[in-house]
Amino acid sequence: MLNLVKKDLKLSKKINIFAVIYALFIATMGLTMPDHPVANILYVLGMVILIFISVIYTNGYDDKYKSEIILNSFPIDRKDIVRGKYISLIIYIIIACSAVLIFTNIILKIGIITNGRSANIWNAIFAANISLIFYSIYYPFYFKLGEGLRSFNTILWILMTVGPAIIGKSFKKLEEIGYLEKILSIDINKINLYLFIFSLMMFYVSLQISKKIYTRKEF
Questions:
Q1: CB under 8 Å to 192, separation ≥6 — which residues?
Q2: Measuring CA to CA, how many Å separate 33 from each of 42, 120, 132?
Q3: Which of 11, 19, 206, 219 is most exposed by smallest CB count within 10 Å?
Q4: Cα–Cα distance between 38 and 114 in angstroms, integer?
Q5: pLDDT of residue 33
Q6: Nearest to 142 by CA among 78, 196, 182, 85
Q7: What pLDDT is attached to residue 203?
Q8: What's the rounded Cα separation, in Å, for the pair 150 and 133?
Q9: What is the pLDDT of residues 103-124, one digit of tens each?
Q10: Which stretches in the chain have pLDDT values below 50?
């Protein structure tokens, strides 16, 4: 199983550099609006995009070169193949969140932007929650359908590309109708923490479901 994780991590090094630059650019935009709640959303979005492109590239590579068929021709436990994908996701989350945290702090340290506020651990937890919940739903379908999710991935990437503009307009609309202040008065960090516990439980259940699906799958 460890070798399967290493394989995914090696593949993730070859992801589109322009996608990485785009994700970090979104995070940098957050530094330019330190007193606006959109900044936190941009940090989270940057983290989520980095996680997404890592997963979609490695899974896309497996689909393109029929890696599943090759792996299943070896004496490898199918459950380990599933565990490998889930462990890789955890590593991607850690790397992506750390990258944005470190990058935004470096930008402030070297003085490119002086009045901003860097990403924080709560942004990372929120990004982790979104990723864990999304892929807890996604992976059972992935192990069931495989290449059938390729079109869905394309649509999701388009949504992430236009995400910052949609978020900006949404916040502006909420501010105009007076709901933004009410939303900001909610203890988001407390909700974030409870959501993290829920997302971990959901992730575990998803892993068990995916293992059952994949062990019964025919190639």
A1: 122, 125, 126, 129
A2: 10, 15, 28
A3: 219
A4: 18
A5: 78
A6: 85
A7: 97
A8: 19
A9: 999 988 887 777 778 899 999 9
A10: none
Q: What angle do CA 104, 157, 116 make, to 5 degrees?
A: 20
Contact indicator for 26, 42 with CB cutoff of 8 Å:
yes
d(CA 78, CA 53): 24
Cα angle value 125/195/129 (rounded, 5°): 40
pLDDT the model gives residue 115: 76
How remote is the C-alpha of 166 from its chain's centroid?
18
Q: How far apart are CA 167 and CA 78, in angstroms?
A: 40
Q: Which helix (H) or strand (E) holds 206?
A: helix 188-215
Question: What is the DSSP secondary-structure string of 148-200?
Answer: GGHHHHHHHHHHHHSHHHHHHHHHHHHHHTT-HHHHHTS-HHHHHHHHHHHHH
Residue 135 token pair? 């892929």
